[in-house]
Fold this sequence. Notes:
Low-confidence stretches: 7-33, 126-153, 503-507
Mean pLDDT: 82
Largest sheet: 5 strands, mixed
Number of strands: 7
Strand order of the largest sheet: 5-4-3-6-7
Radius of gyration: 42 Å
Distance between the termini: 118 Å
Helix content: 55-70%
Number of helices: 16
Amino acid sequence: MNDNKRKRRKKDSSSVPEFEDANGENNQFQEQKPGGVKTKDLKEIITSLILLEEQEKKDQDEFAKEEEQEKLFFESNHQKKERAMLDYYSQLQDYHREADLKEGIRKRKGRANTAAAAATTLAAAVVDAAEHDAGSGNSGGGEQGDKGAKGAPQRRLWVKDRSKAWWDQCNSAEFPEEEFKKAFRMGKDTFEMICNELTSVVAKENTMLRDAVPVRQRVAVCIWRLATGEPLRLVSKRFGLGISTCHKLVLEVCSAIRTVLMPRYLQWPDEESARRIQDEYESLSGIPNVVGSMYTTHIPIIAPKISVAAYFNKRHTERNQKTSYSITVQGVVNPKGVFTDVCIGWPGSMPDDQVLEKSALFQRANQGLLNGVWIGGGSGYPLMDWVLVPYTQQHLTWTQHAFNEKIGDVQRISKDAFARLKGRWSCLQKRTEVKLQDLPVVLGACCVLHNICEIRNEEMDPELKFDLYDDEMIPEMPLRSVNAMKARDAIAHNLLHHNHAGTSFLS
């Protein structure tokens, strides 16, 4: 009986198939249900999807965190740069104030030394005269002594004899008008008017030591120097004056022009003048409410002793393949090319938009004095509620392209005005001998003299034409006002709709 049971168990076990695993051991195959395999695979797929989703969410969180850190870093870096720039300009202003103070002390000491020398010379002259009187009285009697005292020449300061023949010729009434205009960039009447206006400020009285330089000669030295840009040693030979005297006269007359003539000939237009300017600009371009055309140019200078990097003009250096340093002059002109606002003296490394932010014009706009009007500018300026600039994106519509042509007509007026300014006053075309702290005064005088010539219709010699090259760089934030962007689009649409944009053949 037991043998039969063992035989049956052996027979049942032999009916189950066997397989050999990787270790060579025989394992019996265990049958599984089909439904169990599918459930297991589905769970693994769902688990994998959940893990992938969690990983993707984790990656997104990390990316957002990194992006926020980068944004905070850039904002911190921008704030540091802004603080550094403000500190630099504060130090620059302190340096200029200190330099002006030292220059004033030096001039006072110089005047004191001159006065002391004059007093010494005068005292010596008095002693010599007394000794001469005493000698004459002992040898020839009292009457001859009195005659000798009366006939004694007056002692004067020795002055080097220089020829003034060229200036005497120019100053004569027979000197031709065209030759005078070619030499001084203006006619005799305009020159005479400037001399009359400045007489009360620049005139000096004769002294016992020497005769004062006449007003006409003083003004002529300054205007000739600005017009030709000649070195002071050549100016000295032409006018028969010392080099230091010529340098002093240029600065004195330029300062007098800024004090006396600038308030009269360079000022922001009043309401009546502003309306007339708007009408002229609208008739020229079709753009309404334009009160000025704005442009920024660079004036070359010798490398300064401090803050050299601030005055380094990178764009001019790359174009000319020569190291260039400069300061900026920003100007707004009316339709006739007359300056109504100038901002002078900021370092040449600053782009146009930063120079604008530092100007008094920007402060005037922030006070609401330019509401409802436009100042046309180039692509180097940002679009703001009062600054109208061209479209700068790559692909322009026909409307935008037509608008750019019209705003270009507005900007061309200021660019041409600066070209005439530099052409008329050649000292602005090359590096000058004037010190950096004195340059704003000289440049301001050039702008005032330009206005006088433009107002009095002084035509410029075509040979003096100057080609202006100033690189415009699109600002980091070209659009600073949504309202201005909508207003510009409306102006562009109206120009096209009213056939002011040169597209009448499409209608």
